[in-house]
Amino acid sequence: MSTLVTGIAELVTNDPSLGPAPLGIVTDAALVLDDGLVAWVGPAAGAPRADARIDVGGRAVIPGFVDSHAHLVFAGDRSAEFEARMSGVAYDGGGIASTVAATRDASDDALRARLRRLVAEMRGQGTTTVEIKSGYGLTVDDEARTLRLAAEVTPETTFLGAHVVPAEYRGRADEYVALVTGPMLSACAPHARWADVFCEPASAHAFDGDQSRAVLEAGRAAGLDLRVHANQLSAGPGVQLAVELGAASADHCTHLTDADVDALAAGSTVATLLPGVEFSTRSPYPDARRLLAAGIPVALATDCNPGSCFTSSMAFCIALAVREMRMTSAEALWSATAGGAAALRRTDVGRLGVGARADLAVVDAPSYRHLAYRPGVPIVRTLEVPG
Ligand code: NIG
Ligand code: FE
């Protein structure tokens, strides 16, 4: 059944053949959706007939958000850790251990219920594609069940057995890396598309450059594509490692040297910025303008997780990107849609040209600019198309 979507005051397509780059905006627009895909897009006056019709009443329509970085399979609560940070305690990843303990203790049903609630919360706020990492199990069985649960809700699953060194391996990080790159990877690879590592020599809990390289090379040898938690707390080796190994994305990029920026500019790795983390850890924001000036593709994502940033709102991240990182509203929206798609190497989402997935979000305003202009107000939702 085909559906005509009309009454679109401003349509963001991210397709430069349909309107000026980067957003490819068509005003007074319509779309025809058929069999889950965009079948036609253009000015409403020229729209073809369809079986059904949805009138969005003069609102803006954008591609559904592509949240390319989230950790949604977990149990427990770390609101006290957030409170402590707000009064000056620094984030170092040490709190991850408490989520690991709670997650190991939780039943599949409890983890699944929490996961599904968070995915629904995201969808209700306009997110139609989400990447989900493991990393709160840190045993062979708990990492594999985490990824099995994540795969129930998204094809974008990421093996993050190398999130931190778990308590039982304290002081034996290399032995833990051997577990991650051996039996844990074998059990997890069938359920994962991506491999990731928290590369952060400045944290006592995460992994140095050599350990991170071992994790990523093993993941690649097992057929997984790569993404990296890089340069979150310090200008470590993560970004250059990500570029060297051809990772799709280097995530965080909070502390960058000139050599890191040069490497990103010369390579094909997307820089994924997670400004909700800097907000929720009271840290300095990444220098988005420096990356954009160097022509580096930038993605925005939530990093939704119980520790460093517990927001599921891409609109909030857009508002932070505009207010705190001086991205324009257009740059921020592109990064939250097409940029996220690039970070996941997807060409079927993050845009609304013919042939793209029919993943639409409606902004309860005449322009996408309201996403940053009305921070904290729930004005964006996924358009649910019947049939
Ligand atoms: O992306 N940096 C490492 N991992 C997560 C935080 C996980 C947590 O604190 O529970 C991040 O910020
Ligand atoms: Fe993360």
Task: List strands and helices in order, with pairings.
Layout: E1 2-12, E2 25-34, E3 37-43, E4 52-63, E5 65-67, H1 79-86, H2 96-105, H3 108-123, E6 127-130, E7 132-133, H4 140-151, E8 157-162, H5 173-188, E9 194-199, H6 209-221, E10 225-230, H7 238-244, E11 249-252, H8 258-266, E12 270-273, H9 275-281, H10 288-293, E13 298-300, H11 314-325, H12 329-343, E14 360-363, H13 370-373, E15 380-382
Parallel strand pairs: 1-4, 5-6, 7-8, 8-9, 9-10, 10-11, 11-12, 12-13
Antiparallel strand pairs: 1-2, 2-3, 4-14, 14-15
Helix pairs in contact: 3-4, 4-5, 5-6, 7-8, 11-12
The protein binds N-(iminomethyl)-L-glutamic acid (NIG) and fe (iii) ion (FE).
Task: Write a concise keyword list for the protein shown above.
13 helices, six-stranded mixed beta sheet, 387 residues, 22% strand, seven-stranded parallel beta sheet, TIM Barrel, binds N-(iminomethyl)-L-glutamic acid
Notes on the structure:
- Helices cover 35% and strands 22% of the residues.
- With 387 residues, the protein is α/β, with parallel strands linked by helices.
- It has 2 domains: 2-63 and 351-382, Urease, subunit C, domain 1, CATH 2.30.40; 65-343, TIM Barrel (Alpha-Beta Barrel), CATH 3.20.20.140.
- The protein has a 7-stranded parallel β-sheet. It has a 6-stranded mixed β-sheet with strand order 3-2-1-4-14-15, with no helix packed on it. A two-stranded parallel sheet has the order 5-6.
- Strand 11, helix 8 and strand 12 (270-273) form a beta-alpha-beta unit.
- The longest helix is centred in the N-terminal third of the chain and has 16 residues, at 108-123.
- It is globular, with a radius of gyration of 20 Å.
- The mean pLDDT is 98.
- It binds N-(iminomethyl)-L-glutamic acid and fe (iii) ion.
